[in-house]
Write a structure and sequence with these properties.
Strand content: 35-45%
Distance between the termini: 53 Å
Structural class: alpha+beta
Order of helices and strands: HHHEEEEEEEEEEEEEEEEEEEEEEEEEEE
Number of helices: 3
Shape: elongated
Largest sheet: 11 strands, antiparallel
Amino acid sequence: MIPIALPSAGFYILLSCGFLAGLLLLGWLLVVATSAGARRAVRKYWKTSTLLFVVLLVPFAFYAWVQTVFWQIGRESDRREAARNVTLAQPTTVGGIVMPAGTRLKLQDEGELETYVDAQFPEPVSLYGVQATSAIRYLDADYDKDTYALLGRHPRTVLLRGTGSQAVLGWQCDATQDIEIDVARDGAMTGLSKCVLGAGNRVADLEIAAGSIAYGSSGTVYTDGSRDPDRWRIEVKDPVAVKVFGLPLSNPRIYLDEARRLLRVSDAELACPVSLGDVSYAAGTQVRSVRRGRGDDREPYPGVLLMSPWNGQAAKRAGHEDVPEGMSVMQTLQGKVLDVVKNDTVGVFHFATIIVGDEAPSGPARARCP
């Protein structure tokens, strides 16, 4: 945060007095200009009139000076803003990209085309495999460690938009919404950070609905320093439940490895009542997969399922007491019960809802049971 000294109250008082003094001067001059009697009075009491004129002129001069400074600052700001908006008169290579004539650029630094932060193309331009009609860049700055002088800027993230559905690293992305690309210092693409998926995406035997969101990742990192091989996280947005590990789940979050094999699932709930092994669960039961152990001793994917009754419901287990809300059942994918544990021991938390106003907020809609 950069500290900024705000003007004191006295400054605003002087400015207001100057404005009022200007109004009085203007009124006085109008009266003198239109009234012969007023002119005679000024000539008769010229010393008093001169003193009064000076008393009013001094604060008004301060007010006029401040307004002049503000006007000059505003004019310079407008000039700089105009200079940062450039339209290319001819095809130009900027940041390694050939941009056509008519491209509109917004620059971070005046006169430096390489520092553009927004580009609007008159025709599609190929950027990172996307036929883009616009590009927004987020730049990082390099400074001299001693003088803090600006040494240069380089892109960190690029947001692209285009038309229709376009292939990006094997995903069909909806190019009418932001496609977020991670880039290196030299502008080369390092990965797909995020895109809203269009139609035609499949993971194993699961078809991903259009509108789902794909996130690129370098892998989940644990507190012990180990890193998972998950490279993609998909937030499924489908009005109909999808089957993951054989369970009909509502809007699950699934994790995939580099080969796009399913590793685990989280943040999901059952869309339908389900029986898994000898346990029956109600719709709305929270579902995620976990791997037990730590570090090199952590069990392989996909681990086990963690089934957590929710909203006052209980899981029915044949030959045993019901499993109430606040407890979770750990089961294999085949349905064998491994343990029944308290939610807080396995990281399942139910956060309080804060209600502002009289109406309680509505939760996310559950997908339809297929």
